[in-house]
Amino acid sequence: MIFRQLFEPLSCTYTYLLGCEQTGQALLIDPVVNAIDRDLALLQQLGLRLAWTVETHIHADHITGARHLKERVGSRIAVAALDALPCADLGLQDGVPLTLGELSLLPIHTPGHTAHHLAFAGAGRLFTGDALLIEGCGRTDFQGGSAADLYRSIHQRLFTLPDETLVYPGHDYQGRQVSSIGQEKARNPRLGQGRSAAEFEALMAALNLPYPKFIDHAVPGNRDCGRCPDDLPTQLQAYCGRMTESPQG
């Protein structure tokens, strides 16, 4: 398997490229619209053809590159079936693998950050989106989020995986790239260290986080598979522009 971890600095989003060496096909998990030129250049460099873009959830902090990639190279769009997006080519269901040549990606329904959030397991790696971050987790106060649901998702679904399973999150704001299930069980201050569900719910309720600055534009755009809004304020237009530089993670 060909694997690359890519970092978009404006939203601190990780995009993951997985390629099948046998077929030359590839998929991208959580592509970002202002980094698709980077992604397409890397695919060309690796001699891969983009077959799928795959979303962990409907994002509130950036616009997905799914629609623009489909328009440019004919890739298909896969999202959670529960989101019922008319623009998607495939509705992903819990426990039903997405297969691409020798690659197999298993969706795991992990509600809590959003109601329909998916993590993906494959090749000894776990792509956790915004549900489980490195020594953290996504917020639970919008888009059907629930601290109680997120606690169950992590403890009953993800923390039951082998400790050596590598954890690749949807974001990191401190330059970290990878963790493991064992590390998060031992060190995550929100969800690990033996913290109870009641403690976690109280912690999340007390965060008092500010309203997300991009959510009113990102959610409608992402429900249309990445259509950039026409009414973006000047200070947010970079979120739908082509970035001239976007380093790999």
Automatic annotation (TrEMBL):
Statement: the UniProt record of this protein carries the keyword ATP-binding: no
Keywords: Metal-binding
Residue intervals of the Metallo-beta-lactamase domain: 12-171
Alphabetical GO biological process terms: glutathione metabolic process; hydrogen sulfide metabolic process
GO molecular function ontology, one term from the record: sulfur dioxygenase activity
Family matches, as Gene3D superfamilies: Ribonuclease Z/Hydroxyacylglutathione hydrolase-like
Keyword Metal-binding listed: yes
Name listed for the protein in its UniProt record: MBL fold metallo-hydrolase
